[in-house]
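[Q] Does anyone have a clean structure-token version of this?
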Amino acid sequence: MDNIIRCSWASSDPLYIKYHDEEWGKAVYDDKTLFEFLILEGAQAGLSWITILRRRENYRKAFAGFDVKKVAVFDDQDVERLMKDDGIIRNRLKVNGAITNARLFLSIQQEFGSFSNYLWRFMPQKKPILHQINQMSDVPARTEISDQISKDMKKRGFKFFGTTICYAFMQATGMVNDHLLTCCARS
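[A] Here you go.
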């Protein structure tokens, strides 16, 4: 065990530590990465993040390398293939939701030029919010901004993207930085 100070949720699991240190809270503007987290956060609904993180590579294979154009044209045969894939969460609503979300993701890209443009317009000055987190109990489960994004995305038809999932997505993609003030990964 090293003596590096991390957020308490980044346990001794090497996968969690790597994710915490290298990804969580880092601003993402790349549509492919944003789509990946949209799929993963939707799959995570009701489950722990480590459950999904451990299956991330399986999701990458199952969902065409997170190629949104390929996922958007998945059909009933693809749904049945995914329902037999024990490397992912085999929940029909989540699988269908991921495909629906891919189609809607493309329509947002068309409307705004990129999904990134759409998302970041909700942020003050289109920049990440650095919260002053002294202890993990200070981290909110949702915010007014996650409420706004979630409401807009639900209105557009997105599935599995309520305000709590939206806030987790915002943390994962660095729209908010909720690392402890003393954390080694705080930037």
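[Q] Thanks! Anything notable?
[A] The mean pLDDT is 96.
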